[in-house]
Amino acid sequence: MGPDSIPMASFAPDLVIRALTDDGSFRVLTARTTELCREAVKKQSTSGETAQHFGDLLTGTVLVRETMAPPLRVQGVVRGARGGCTLIGDSFPDGGTRGLVNLKSGESEIVLGGDAIMQFMRTLPNSSIHRGVVRVPERGGITAALMGYMQESEQIVTVMGVQTLFNDAGTVRSAGGYVVQLLPGADHDTVAVMTERLAADFSDLTRFVDAQPFDPDALLEEICYRVPFSRVETRDVRFHCPRSQASVMASLATLPIDDIQSFINDGEVLDIACDYCGADYQVAPDQLRGLLSQS
Q1: Which of these, 211, 208, 238, lies nearest to 221 by C-alpha position?
Q2: Which domain holds residue 278?
Q3: Are residues 29 and 128 in the same domain?
Q4: pLDDT tens digit at each of 295 positions of the chain
Q5: The model's pTM
Q6: Could you give the angle at which helices 257-266 and 285-294 cross, rounded to 10 degrees?
Q7: What is the CATH number of the domain that holds 38?
Q8: Can you tell me the distance from the alpha carbon of 64 to that of 179, in angstroms, rounded to the nearest whole number?
Q9: Together in a domain, 206 and 283
Q10: What is the rounded distance in angstroms from the CA atom of residue 23 to the CA atom of residue 9?
Q11: Per the structure, how many domains does the chain have?
Q12: For residues 158 and 70, what is the distance between their CA atoms, to the nearest angstrom?
């Protein structure tokens, strides 16, 4: 097996498991996002620490979305120090998630700490957008920023962990994470035990995520060790970009009429590539004329 090969056993479907402790103290979510992160990293042709942080942000965005009720579209954005790089995770209610890496000219890696920020935006049912922003510390990185966001912006006591692991060729080998949230009326003794265990045993998820394949149910069992709990729901997640020929046409339709007419006069087929997934869409002049007839 070559260094870039991935064992077939690792191709387990990505999913999120949601559970509640029986005493009502905690909500616990665990996620496997291996295939999602692998595909997104590949589509963005990113590597090194930037790929690491990108994978962690994608998993974190999925977990943040899964804490929302009802499920909403959630976008997580990390802007590196000095504006050198931007990472975007975009997760939809149907479990589809995509991502984007933008490197500033002359920059090769995202830099955390300093003035680096993390912003989450969620689209509410009335189409308004809720935004929350926190600093991204150099120490603790994406995980620390995720916990800061949940506690400062969502005002929920939360412990989170995300991890993205790579093989020697730079391909995502395994990815996933967890969320533990304190619920109102939690038992103080149970809270003390859970908090101590999370700090001692789950600050580094490598030993869990590095299993082939990583099993989020096993992680759930470990987090809730000796704390009775019930699984509430399991949801599939996956890499998916909703961009389509129809959505491309809809975007073009928002352009000023003079711009559309200019494209028609050029007589060339527009070739539009999706930044998220790399898919190419062609729009012929006759299709553009159709936009003018609709206006």
Answers
A1: 208
A2: 245-294
A3: yes
A4: 444 444 444 568 999 999 999 999 999 999 999 999 999 999 999 999 999 999 999 999 999 999 987 778 999 999 999 887 999 999 999 999 999 999 988 888 999 999 999 999 988 777 788 899 999 998 889 999 999 999 988 888 899 999 999 999 999 999 999 999 999 888 888 888 888 889 889 989 999 999 888 999 999 999 999 889 999 999 999 999 999 999 999 999 999 999 999 999 999 999 999 999 999 999 999 999 888 876 5
A5: 0.91
A6: 150
A7: 3.55.30.10
A8: 9
A9: no
A10: 36
A11: 2
A12: 19
Q: At what angle do helices 141-152 and 48-67 cross, to 10 degrees?
A: 30
Q: Tell me the longest C-alpha to C-alpha distance in the chain.
A: 73
Would you say residue 232 lies in a domain? yes
User: Rounded to whole angstroms, how far apart are CA atoms 257 and 292?
Assistant: 7
Q: Copy the structure tokens of residue 71.
A: 């499920």
Domain assignment of residue 3, yes or no = no
7 domain residue, yes or no = no
Token pair of 170 as six digits: 């730079």
Shared-domain flag, residues 194 and 278: no
- Pick the last residue of a domain from 209, 239, 269: 239
Q: Is residue 4 part of a domain?
A: no
